[in-house]
């Protein structure tokens, strides 16, 4: 008759031995990092753990430095084709880091990238300046990475412009004005499907007339344009700078690229042939001005 095997009282069971072995293996597999860290402390920071961390840091820094250098030293002609610009540039030279281009026949733009601001904002932050006849305009542009046509921010825009620069922006205008403008702290943000801006533009008294001579010269008072944003898009309210500071025109640019111009009664007197008591609205697509 077979008798059941009796376990020695001081000898662990097979199940206990297996559980102990499994637990030991798990602890060993999960405790590698702890062992390396303990060995690192014991050897004064000269272990393989420290070496691994140092090498990984060097590799990551190298990759980041390479990526930044590729972006900053990217040829400027290539970049101008990847982002939306409201004006056409010619003779583009240099890189994102530093370069120049021509605007029309008599205006130039130069730029220089701010390394600190770019790292802080994780974007390409560029300080730019436009000069030409009577024009000295400067500001800052921020282009989030990766570069896209529908994302940009312009801020800290200030300086003076004269009519020849307006003709560079809008070469097909049928009027010509003898007037200048002062821009103060303008901000413009372009995001896909949304635009925002803020700031003021002021002009001294001047004269405007038709290029072909069909519209007689019309004197214009000192004006102030206040830039705001509403749910539809951008809004510019043009008022007289001197009392009574009546609203003359309201210009809107919707997020759907439609321009809405409202001529108020006080502004109608500046338009030849219009009754001073009437208010009118004009709507046209943005492509009519910027094909």
Describe this structure in words.
This protein has 291 residues and is of the alpha+beta class. The chain is 26% helix and 41% strand. The protein has helices at 14-30, 32-42, 48-72, 76-80, 115-121, 163-169, 265-268, and strands spanning 90-94, 98-103, 107-113, 123-132, 135-144, 152-162, 175-178, 180-191, 194-203, 206-210, 218-220, 223-229, 233-240, 247-254, 258-263, 280-285. The strands form two sheets. It has a 13-stranded antiparallel beta sheet with strand order 1-2-3-4-5-6-8-9-12-13-14-15-16, with helices on both faces. The protein has a three-stranded antiparallel beta sheet with strand order 7-10-11, with no helix packed on it. β10 (206-210) and β11 form a beta hairpin. It is elongated. The termini are far apart.
């Amino acid at each position: 008759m077979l008798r059941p095997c009796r376990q020695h009282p001081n000898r662990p069971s097979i199940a206990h031995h297996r559980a102990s072995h499994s637990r030991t293996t798990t602890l060993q597999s999960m405790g590698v990092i702890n062992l390396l860290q303990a060995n690192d402390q014991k050897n004064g920071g000269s272990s393989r753990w420290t070496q691994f961390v140092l090498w990984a840091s060097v590799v990551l820094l190298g990759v980041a430095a390479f990526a930044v250098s590729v972006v900053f030293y990217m040829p400027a002609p290539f970049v101008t084709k990847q982002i939306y610009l409201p004006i056409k540039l010619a003779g583009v030279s240099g890189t994102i880091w530093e370069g120049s281009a021509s605007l029309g026949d008599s205006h130039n733009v130069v730029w220089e990238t701010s390394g600190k601001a770019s790292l802080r904002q994780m974007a390409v932050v560029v300080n730019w300046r436009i000069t030409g006849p009577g024009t000295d305009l400067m500001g800052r542009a921020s282009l989030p990475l990766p570069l896209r046509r529908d994302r940009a921010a312009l801020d800290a825009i200030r300086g003076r412009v004269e009519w020849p620069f307006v003709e560079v922006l809008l070469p097909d205008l049928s009027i010509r004005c003898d007037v200048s403008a002062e821009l103060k702290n303008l901000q413009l943000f372009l995001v896909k499907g949304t635009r925002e801006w803020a700031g003021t533009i002021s002009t001294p008294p001047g004269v405007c007339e038709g290029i072909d001579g069909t519209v007689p010269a019309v004197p214009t008072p000192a004006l102030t344009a206040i830039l705001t944003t509403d749910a539809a898009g951008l809004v510019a309210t043009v008022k007289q700078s001197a009392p009574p500071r009546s609203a003359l025109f309201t210009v809107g640019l919707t997020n759907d690229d439609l321009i809405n111009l409202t001529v108020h009664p006080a502004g109608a007197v500046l338009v030849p042939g219009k009754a001073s008591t009437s208010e009118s609205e004009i709507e046209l697509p943005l492509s009519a001005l910027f094909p």
